[in-house]
Write a structure and sequence with these properties.
The protein is mainly α. The protein has helices at about 20-40, 45-50, 60-75, 85-95, 95-105, 110-125, 150-175; strands spanning about 140, 145-150. It has a two-stranded antiparallel ribbon. A hairpin with a 5-residue loop joins strand 1 and strand 2 (about 145-150). The longest helix has 27 residues, at about 150-175.
């Protein structure tokens, strides 16, 4: 993914997006840029490192970002539950755990970066087709409480930022080996 470093810290209008979507995408771009900077140059061994048998690897967390964003595409853009096929495909990245440790091993950084970029392109292209008012539409969400689409998409990048902290801790553990 390419980022305009001259406007990375400016939350403002983005080409092809309404103002509210522009604000959201500005924040999503910053979160993604800082994540990509954090994982730049990592080897397969570093991406696969597990502190213990219950831990997440950096590769698993990168796969998690893509799975979460895909899940929110389905949930918010299509307003439906996952099909069994989608759930089978997304479960290792969403749940992490044993399935994630099994599926996300031995893959290089380009594998994860390509997946992240493809999912994000789909998200932005869909955002371009929606009116800003869509962000404020509410529906039942966690524990059947109302949430709007703005919050749902805030959560997508908030989750990424949260797990980026985990990536930083894993990298520190790698340095101490």
């Amino acid at each position: 993914m390419e980022f305009d470093l001259q406007s990375l810290y400016v939350i403002d209008q983005k080409d092809g997006l309404g103002l509210e979507f522009s604000k959201l995408v500005s924040m999503m771009n910053y979160a993604r840029y800082t994540t990509l900077e954090e994982v730049k140059g990592l080897t397969v061994e570093e991406l696969d490192f597990l502190f213990d048998e219950e831990a997440n690897s950096i590769g698993m967390l990168l796969a998690h970002y893509a799975a979460v964003e895909t899940a929110y595409q389905i949930e918010s853009f299509e307003s439906r539950d996952f099909t069994n096929e989608e759930l089978d495909r997304l479960r290792p990245g969403l749940e992490l755990g044993p399935l994630g440790r099994e599926q996300f091993r031995g893959k290089d950084l380009d594998f994860y970066l390509k997946n992240l970029a493809e999912v994000r392109i789909q998200t932005i292209e869909k955002f371009k087709t929606l009116p800003d008012e869509w962000l404020y539409e509410q529906s039942p969400f966690w524990w059947n409480r109302p949430a709007n689409n703005f919050f749902k998409w805030f959560h997508v990048f908030e989750d990424e930022l949260n797990h980026r902290g985990q990536i930083r801790i894993i990298k520190k553990m790698l340095q101490k080996r």
